Structures are given as structure tokens and as C-alpha cells.
Amino acid sequence: MISLWCKNQGIKLPDTVQFSKYGGLTKADRDHFVSLLKKMASNLSGQREAAEELRQLTKRMSSYRALFGEYVNAVPHLLFPFSQKSSSEIHAGLQEDLITTLLNISIHEDNKKLVAENPMVIPLLMDAVRSGTVETRSNAAAALFTLSALDSNKVLIGKSGALKPLIDELDKGHPLAVKDVASAIFGLCMIHQNKLIAVRDGAVRVILKKIISRMHVDELLTILALLSTIQKAVEEMGELEAVPCLLCIIRETSCARNKENCIVVLYAICFSDRSKWKEMRDDETTYHTISQLAQNGTSRAKRKASGILERMNRPVNLIHTAIN
């Protein structure tokens, strides 16, 4: 309609606004995109200018995110500065822009495999989690979470060793980065082999320490519930006094999901370690925490709470008989 109106008015449209078949991008847009990638091989000033513009373009426009999948060497060109210097030598602002651009382009579904399988990407994201600015750390963790949407990427990222720097950042990193870090750990731990890696790398101790301090409880309880399918994790939870902490959270929180995650973990502990039954019985005598949840929780929470009560109330000699 615009073209027809312009034609009737005798106005000639410039080439730069003639939409192409490439998602609304013109040839001029695509040429500009290529020129920005080429500038990544220039001096620091040119790199910073190009990186900042690519960050903004990929944030605002999905068509620019898609371009990274159409140009075979787009990701290597974007990361060219890292091929010349180590992450610690890269200008902090440049690193932040490049890592954030990786996050932006990873949002595009067709790019997830392409980005994760580039041999530079996961190590760069790990380095950024370890030593970037607060925003860089957050965005690197967010990129790992976004990439972990694909199961094949979960495996790749887990094998690369990315869980250890994420757990370290969760433990001692900046509070503003913790939410994205927790999301990345959660995404990766959706598969069994990464749960094993996370437990091996100290996730249970770090997560419980944060929960006991009432920091990011919502996110971390979700991860703890995921890890409760791993026997070694459940044993650690018992040793680290998880039971009184979780019972206390059930009483003090109004969040049904948090109550559910707490009882899921307590259920795993109850069926793994009979030495914790006394703590649970004593709590029942004083507060009736588990029985109240068995009546008022979510359907899953009711089921788990009822299972704990049934287990604790079962005569000991029947348990021995069942085992024998």
C-alpha cells in the first residue's frame, strides 16, 4: 500500500527501505551487519563501536539474531577479539558487549546448537562467569541457561566443566548475579549426568548455606529438589542439617511451591536416612508441620507429606520384615 501510494504520488522509494525476503531486513541492513563483523578485526575503538551496536541490534530485532545463523562465520567473527587475547586481557566493556550479544543471539531457537557447538563459546562464557563485571557474569550465566534449553547442549555444557564456575559464583559471587547463576544451574541439572556433576562440584553445600541464610530461597529450593534424586546429595543434605531448616521454611513461607520443594527433599531424606526420623517426629509433636502440609499442601506436597507420616509411623519390626 505504501509502495502504491508513493507510485501514485510520483515518489520513488530508496533501495534501503525496500523490504527483502530476509525477515524485513534490506540488502543495506545485511551489508551493514557484515561491516560490523569485519570491524571486530580492527583496533579497540572499532571493536568497541561495532560490539556495542551489535549488542543493541540483537537486543531489539530478532531478524538480526537470525542473521548469525545465516552467515556461517558470523559467530567466529564476533569473537575474533578473544582469539587475539585472553579474557583477562580483553577490555571489560568489550567483553560485556560481546558476551551480551552471545546471550541475545542464543535466544533465537535456530542459533542454540550453532552457538553452543562453537568451540570458543562455552569456555568464554565460563571465563566471563569467573571474572567479568557483574553484568557480564549475569549475562554469561543467562546465556548458559538459554543454551541449555536443548538437551544436547546440556550434555555439552556439563562435560565442558561449566557447572563448577557457576557453583563458585553462587557461593561467593555478587548477589546481583546469583539469580541468573541459579537459573543456569537449574537448567543444566534437568538431566541426570549434570546432577551428578553438580553434586560432585559441591552444589549441595553451597545451596544449603544460601538457603539457611534465606538468600534466593525460591530458586535454590527448586534446585535442591532436583538434586534430591541423587543418593549422595541426599546424604549430604542430612549431614548438613537440612531437616530443621526445611521444616522451618515450610512453617514460615506462604509460597506453596517452596513448601512443596521442601517436602520433596524431606521425603528423600526420610526414605534414605532413618536417623533423621527423630527430628521429624519431634517437629510433628511440637508444630505438626508435616501433617498440616498433608492436609493443606499442593497435591504433590500432600502425597509426599503423607508418605513421610506413613513411613515414620510404621512399626520398626515391620520395616525389618519388609527388608528381609
TrEMBL record:
It comes from Abeliophyllum distichum. It comes from the Eukaryota. The keyword Zinc does not apply. Residues 36-314 form the U-box domain. Keywords: Coiled coil, Ubl conjugation pathway. Residues 37-67 form a coiled coil. Gene3D superfamilies: Leucine-rich Repeat Variant. This is U-box domain-containing protein 9.
